[in-house]
Input
Amino acid sequence: MSNPPHLGRGHRTPWRSPLRGPWLTSVFGLVLLVGIPVLFVTGLLSYAAYNPDLSPVNDKTPDKGLLGFYLFSWPTHPSWLYGVNQGVHVTLGIVLVPVLLAKLWSVIPKLFERPAVRSVAHGLERLSLLALVGGGLFEFATGVLNVQLDYVFPGSFYPLHFYGAWIFMAAVVVHVALRFPRMVRALKGRDLRAELRTPVSRTRPEPPDDTGLVSPDPAPPTMSRRGALGMVGAGSAALLVVTAGQSIGGPLRETALLAPHNREPGRGPNGFQINKTAAGVGIRARDMGSDWRLVVRGGDRELVLTRQQVLRLPQHGARLPIACVEGWSTPDQRWEGVRLADLAALVGHRDRPPGVLVESVQRHGSFRTVALRDNQVRDPRSLLALKVNGADLSPDHGYPARIIVPGAPGVQNTKWVGRLSFGETL
Amino acid sequence: MRGRYGASPWHLLLLLCSFALTAYAGVRLLSGDWFGIALWIVGAALLHDLVLLPLYALADRAVSAVLPAPAVWINHIRVPAFVSGLLLLVWFPLILGEQTRRYERSTGLSADIFPRRWLLITAVLFAVSALWLALRRWRARPGRAPEVSP
Output
């Protein structure tokens, strides 16, 4: 285009920032080009971690079809795998929010370009951009709301965030394919280090070009490109500081000033992060009292055990973390209890035990029944835990007994376990 | 090669592949409350492009208009306001107490610290920015040799 774009007849453009231009857009684009694939891959891994192909009870998107092509048995080594995956997914997503906003700010004149549709190709591309911008904002919004338990979105988080991610990525691939050469050209056109030495007094608009990003009527600069990049970087850094500690734990947890899991809920052996309190999911005192029984089933065999009887079985220890899909995790806790493999042996599965269906006495809330795969049952660190850090489990941590499995999503470490059915995962 | 379509055949092929995937995921996404979900996706783009962005651009212009010269001082408002606004944008459900009861019953933690902390962080950001401005003015006071502009 040789003529600068105008808004309607005779109006000058309202987009007058002298900083807008292909170089600035490309810098933000490059950051997102690295970050968004990481978000996508960690998101897909998180879905695989639930072992959704093992049992319908693990799968919140059972009609996924080909979109689950990559699923695999989630490993139990290393035990911190899920915590790191989710820490990266959630923290990186939050840290990229200012970059996403800056990228959208930098390209806003394109929304109002005229003619709105130049050709069929241009029209289709703009339709894809709606999926890119709408899908991207949808993914960031649902993620940010979900980690704060603010379930205002229209449906269950899992299908919205999973299918939304595929729609967003379908548009990302098109956008990258069509814009990558231009991004490389733009980045080569200016020297980043020189740009970082340019103060506001020497800041000039990028040369007019055909991208439609450079303002045809630029205002005098009040900020350098260095300043703009610095401001966005400061935003990302601030979000990192007030968020990351909840995924690291220890003394750094308190630095996560605005993150949901930024303090320990108490002191002592049970004073670590809780996902659902007993009161919050309707667990009553008698659910945990002397009437509590553990039912262990395998084939046609069934055992009913009191807590005392479970305590008399061989007890083993394991140092394992809890890591939540919401991105927070705990450091390793010292769990003690009965190996899941030993419980399987009690009902006849002596060698190579199968997977297990775990049912909580919890009355409501999702994931009160989960299926664990055979590799998880066979790991000697997978326990039906009765104690943690030397003390009995507290009610909020699943007294009388809970599951702890290395590397599994926190929600699959079922609390207030009532029944274990080996070989009945489907 | 471009013809009446307006781009190369590869362009069309790429977009059709993308739309096929979008449709495949889309029918699954929209199998629930399809209207609400479509509204959220299209609404997110419209809300950002036609409300949020124009609002902060206008706010920026309004502050520039009322501030005394030199114009670069606006950055001492702009940067802390941007960071504070960003923290609010991301953590508003906790800061505004959208789900206090659910949060407290889930985590066993009290929800009342978030608004205080956000206000404190905001105060610190503006205070640091003001101190920085004071330092710049002091260094640029008459009688001092002019320094390289930052």
Observations:
- Residues 32 and 116 of chain B are 38 Å apart (CA to CA).
